[in-house]
Design goal:
Structural class: alpha+beta
Oligomer: single chain
Strand content: 15-25%
Strand order of the largest sheet: 13-12-9-10-11-14-16-15
Radius of gyration: 22 Å
CATH topology of the largest domain: D-amino Acid Aminotransferase, Chain A, domain 1
Number of strands: 16
CATH architecture of the largest domain: 2-Layer Sandwich
Length: about 450
């Protein structure tokens, strides 16, 4: 049987899910660059031929580490589903002569290079400037139109995003973004291959999106993602995912599969995604392209990743369209024939709908909860009235344990302050959206309040 080296790091689909699909196709050797989630430890022990966690001293040259381990286990393919390991794995595959994202992988990781490439191809995107110092940021604010968005070039999950509405806000935004990137690195949410990646930023104009020109019902966010794959340099769109409106600054709250766009709108979105992916020159990898939707049919590219969408995007696709993207990618990287989609799946082809909700301590308008609450999924499940036929579950691998305090939402930290990830299945996308709206409203009511700490005996209030 073929052998696959799976490089694990923070982010991506749940590890347990990935292992079960990959192990059905090949012997899996796991190289863990991040600690294994406790919920996935049993799966790793039972499904993997080996599990190795390298010491910090071994990680100074990550490409060499991955390549040498691949040779040691006789890997026929090497892959990762983590944004933070994409570039290192791509370069290791190049060194090993194995199929991978290719030498252009960094273009789909470094937002400065990505935007510059799209600019050279004349693709629609916000006006931008690369930023390496506070002085660079000050100069950029003089040439771009406010409001602006400062974002880390190598970040993920809306980490370190800062909205700048006037020149005098630039200095504070710069300091805060740098602080957040440093904190994220300590938590393991940072680029693993590029040294000093937390110092690279891009600032761009915030374009005005509108969902009403694209969706038949209210409540949708003003951007979508095109999920796809590149196989031997050819882009294959799989489907579109819709969103709830983001939480300020631009933290994603929920992704819903499929996105219920009319066929002509979906075709236009897919065409732009194809141009974006083709411009980057990727070879063999999943793709996740986010596109902002504007009035009058306007669109702007947000970003493309050389990996499948994170969180529950891939499991949602499998549930709704019966496509095992993990298994299909493993087959392709091993040289087996795969029947990739030629056109993006449509809502009419879906079997129901599925969505994942990031639990943040903010209400539907983005305002902070009035008090602190404790995460308790049984209380959420019992206390929320969902639509008939809808099924709600919690993704334990991506959630705090029951009884843990829900973190206070930090706009600059984005998804780093999430408490849990919930998965919901329903008869259609509209029902998922409405149930998520119900859930967001119910959370600060049904979750238990944080109890005051007990005072030591003899201590008065």
């Amino acid at each position: 049987m073929s052998k696959v080296l799976l490089v694990h790091a923070k982010g991506g689909p749940p590890l347990g899910y990935v292992l079960s699909r990959a192990a059905a196709k090949s012997h899996v050797h796991l190289l863990a660059l991040s600690a294994l989630p406790p919920e996935a430890a049993d799966a790793a022990a039972s499904l993997c031929a080996s599990v190795v966690t390298p010491a910090e001293a071994e990680r100074t040259d990550l490409v060499s580490l991955i390549a040498s381990h691949a040779r040691a286990v006789g890997a026929d393919a090497v892959l990762t589903f983590s944004e933070y390991a994409v570039v290192a794995v791509a370069e290791a595959c190049e060194e090993l002569g194995l199929a991978g994202a290719g030498s252009a992988a960094a273009l789909a990781r470094d937002k400065r290079l990505m935007r510059r490439t799209w600019q050279e191809h004349g693709l629609s995107q916000p006006e931008f400037r690369p930023v390496a110092t506070e002085a660079d940021l000050g100069e950029a604010t003089g040439s771009l139109s406010f409001p602006l968005l400062l974002k880390a070039a190598w970040s993920a999950g809306s980490t370190a995003h800062q909205i700048i509405r006037s020149p005098h806000e630039a200095s504070a935004a710069w300091r805060r973004s740098r602080e957040v990137m440093s904190a994220s690195a300590r938590l393991g949410y940072s680029e693993l291959h590029v040294a000093e990646a937390d110092a690279d930023f891009v600032v761009e104009e915030i374009v005005s999106g509108t969902a009403s020109d694209w969706f038949a019902e209210p409540g949708w966010g003003d951007y979508v993602s095109v999920e796809g794959v590149v196989a031997d340099g050819v882009f294959h769109p799989v489907c579109l995912s819709g969103r709830m409106p983001t939480v300020e600054p631009f933290t994603e709250r929920a992704g819903i599969t499929p996105a219920p766009l009319p066929q002509d709108c979906q075709d236009r979105v897919v065409a732009l995604a194809r141009q974006a992916v083709d411009a980057l020159g990727l070879r063999n990898c999943g793709t996740h392209t986010e596109i902002k939707l504007g009035a009058g049919g306007r669109m702007w590219l947000i970003e493309t990743a050389a990996r499948f969408g994170g969180a529950m995007t891939v499991p949602q696709i499998e549930e709704v369209f019966r496509l095992d993207l993990v298994g299909m990618l493993v087959d392709h990287l091993l040289g087996r024939s795969v029947d990739w989609p030629t056109d993006a799946r449509t809502p009419d082809q879906a079997r129901g709908a599925a969505g994942s909700l990031v639990v943040l301590a903010v209400d539907g308008e983005g305002a902070a909860w009035p008090d602190r609450r404790v995460w308790d999924f049984p209380a959420v499940s019992a206390g929320t009235a969902l639509s008939r036929g809808s099924a709600l579950s919690v993704v334990a691998e991506c959630s705090l344990p029951d009884g843990a305090e829900v973190p206070v939402y930090d706009p600059a930290a984005g998804a780093n302050t999430m408490a849990a990830l919930c998965l919901l299945s329903a008869e259609d996308s509209r029902t998922v959206l409405r149930d998520f709206e119900t859930l967001v409203t119910a959370l600060p009511r049904v979750l238990p309040q944080v109890r005051p700490a007990a005072r030591p005996e003899g201590v008065s209030a």
